[in-house]
Automatic annotation (TrEMBL):
<feature type="active site" description="Proton donor">
    <location>
        <position position="145"/>
    </location>
</feature>
<dbReference type="GO" id="GO:0051287">
    <property type="term" value="F:NAD binding"/>
</dbReference>
<feature type="binding site">
    <location>
        <position position="142"/>
    </location>
    <ligand>
        <name>(S)-2,3,4,5-tetrahydrodipicolinate</name>
    </ligand>
</feature>
<dbReference type="InterPro" id="IPR036291">
    <property type="entry name" value="NAD(P)-bd_dom_sf"/>
</dbReference>
<keyword id="KW-0963">Cytoplasm</keyword>
<keyword id="KW-0521">NADP</keyword>
<dbReference type="GO" id="GO:0050661">
    <property type="term" value="F:NADP binding"/>
</dbReference>
<keyword id="KW-0220">Diaminopimelate biosynthesis</keyword>
<feature type="domain" description="Dihydrodipicolinate reductase N-terminal">
    <location>
        <begin position="3"/>
        <end position="111"/>
    </location>
</feature>
<comment type="subunit">
    <text>Homotetramer.</text>
</comment>
<feature type="active site" description="Proton donor/acceptor">
    <location>
        <position position="141"/>
    </location>
</feature>
<dbReference type="Pfam" id="PF05173">
    <property type="entry name" value="DapB_C"/>
</dbReference>
<feature type="binding site">
    <location>
        <begin position="8"/>
        <end position="13"/>
    </location>
    <ligand>
        <name>NAD(+)</name>
    </ligand>
</feature>
<dbReference type="InterPro" id="IPR023940">
    <property type="entry name" value="DHDPR_bac"/>
</dbReference>
<feature type="binding site">
    <location>
        <begin position="84"/>
        <end position="86"/>
    </location>
    <ligand>
        <name>NAD(+)</name>
    </ligand>
</feature>
<comment type="pathway">
    <text>Amino-acid biosynthesis; L-lysine biosynthesis via DAP pathway; (S)-tetrahydrodipicolinate from L-aspartate: step 4/4.</text>
</comment>
<dbReference type="GO" id="GO:0016726">
    <property type="term" value="F:oxidoreductase activity, acting on CH or CH2 groups, NAD or NADP as acceptor"/>
</dbReference>
Length: 251
């Protein structure tokens, strides 16, 4: 029985994690952590340091500024963490990389299988099209999303840059009355509205030809399923930083 701590348990994703786990027989939520404790099937704390229950793994869908404290306490308690929270600053990312020297940490800005396949496809296309095609990323999310652009859009952009001979400069949204697009730009555009779960589109625009590779999340369950798979995977790993490629390689 996999014993899970649900960090950000009152949030949109935290609630999906709790529901999916309650439908499974091989894992359970032993405690939740959130800013406002409320009644639930498990005890809810405001910090990992106060959690009394034994746990095998922590799943985190919360807010970027909550991640460093979570990781500090996870290191002290030696509990592996799945970090799904996006919008981490450079300093917060440094803290995460440091913590990964002590405990196993799985981090991905998008836990769905589809986006991780999209990234592999986009990398192949970028290698071939890098000289004659302009690359732009458009992401669309619900009106409650706090970070923009999405962690996934940045993860896709970084994956593209990894394979390009000449690295691109990220341009966030465009507004100008004078400037045309420069060759070394990679445009990233964020749309927010309604209840859109998560849409990502990568456009390779060439002369008289456009290639679009896109992914559409139709429910939050796809992220929760991925995070639970990541949790099962990471409990058996040595300290280090893992991502969706580690899961895909495992098959
Ligand atoms: N990697 C992936 O596949 C996915 C990642 N995400 C990311 O996960 C994160 C959460 O998303 P979502 O569930 O939609 O967001 P929500 O805002 O609905 O949920 C976040 C929860 O975390 C709580 N929280 C904030 N600060 C702290 C803290 N210091 N300690 C404990 N809990 C805290 C919030 O409380 P309060 O509301 O009171 O502030 C809220 O209950 C976002 O960064 C999002 O981008 C989302 C979907 C998929
Ligand atoms: O906040 C969300 O909702 C999502 N956030 C992640 C991101 O920032 O990429 C993943 C997903 O698209 C949903």
């Amino acid at each position: 029985m996999l014993k899970i701590i649900n960090h950000g348990c009152n949030g949109k994703m935290g609630r999906v994690i709790s529901r999916l786990v309650s439908e499974k027989s091989d894992c359970k939520i032993v405690a939740g952590i959130d800013k406002n404790p409320s009644s639930s099937d498990f005890p809810i704390y405001t910090s990992l340091k106060d959690v009394k229950e034994d746990a095998d793994v922590i799943i985190d869908f919360s807010f970027h500024s909550a991640v460093p404290e979570l990781l500090k306490n996870a290191e002290l308690k030696k509990i592996p963490v799945v970090v799904a929270t996006t919008g981490l600053s450079d300093d917060e990312l440094c803290t995460l990389k440091e913590a990964a020297k002590t405990i196993p940490i799985f981090r991905s800005a998008n836990m769905s299988l589809g986006i991780n396949i999209l990234i592999n496809l986009v990398k192949e296309a970028a290698k071939i099209l890098q000289n004659n095609y302009d690359i732009e990323i458009i992401e669309k999310h619900h009106n409650m999303k706090k970070d923009a652009p999405s962690g996934t859009a940045l993860m896709i952009a970084d994956a593209i840059n990894e394979v390009l001979t000449e690295k691109k400069e990220y341009i966030y949204g465009r507004h100008s009355k004078t400037d045309t697009r420069k060759e070394n730009e990679l445009g990233i555009h964020a749309i927010r509205g309604g209840t859109i779960v998560g849409e990502h589109e990568v456009i390779f625009a060439g002369h008289d030809e456009i290639l679009t590779i896109s992914h559409s999340a139709r429910s939050r369950e796809i992220f929760a399923i991925g995070a639970l798979k990541a949790a099962e995977f990471i409990v058996n790993q040595k300290p280090g930083l893992y991502d969706m490629n580690s899961l895909l390689e495992k098959g």
